[in-house]
Design a protein that fits this description.
CATH class: Alpha Beta
Helix content: 25-40%
Order of helices and strands: EHEEEHEEHE
CATH superfamily: NAD(P)-binding Rossmann-like Domain
Largest sheet: 7 strands, mixed
Number of strands: 7
Length: 126
């Protein structure tokens, strides 16, 4: 899949799903997760939040979303609550299952946006 996604926040599962889906280029603002990309055309690079990308995923503090010029997917988890399409407010640290689900849904939403499909939002408790 042609396109560039900027991933902000510690989200190795999200990165793995994007690589497995055949994304062309993934820019990460933190440490690069160890990935086994199945497509030789896949490129992952370390980047700042101001880098140009078709879709910006912000699973972090919202700074990448504020700097973005293109499509933005905000997401995160607090306690057992998962939000995709908005950032969660203050609350307990995310439970592992909620964080994992937020990352998976966010990867899917980014791919939807690259494909030109309408945005979706999710808000539920696991």
């Amino acid at each position: 899949m042609a396109g560039t996604v900027l991933l902000h926040g510690n989200a190795p599962l999200c990165a793995a799903y994007l690589a497995a889906a055949g994304l062309g280029r993934l820019l990460v603002t933190g440490e690069q997760p160890a990935l086994a990309a199945h497509d030789a055309a896949f490129r992952m690079e370390r980047s700042g939040i101001e880098a140009a990308a078709e879709v910006v995923i912000d699973l972090g503090d919202g700074s990448a979303a504020r700097a973005a010029e293109g499509e933005v997917v905000l997401a995160g988890a607090r306690g057992r609550r998962v939000l995709v399409g908005a950032q969660p407010g203050d609350g307990p640290a995310p439970e592992p299952a909620a964080q994992s689900l937020a990352e998976i849904l966010t990867a899917g939403e980014a791919l939807r946006r690259l494909a030109g499909l309408p945005a979706r939002t999710y808000d539920f408790t696991v």
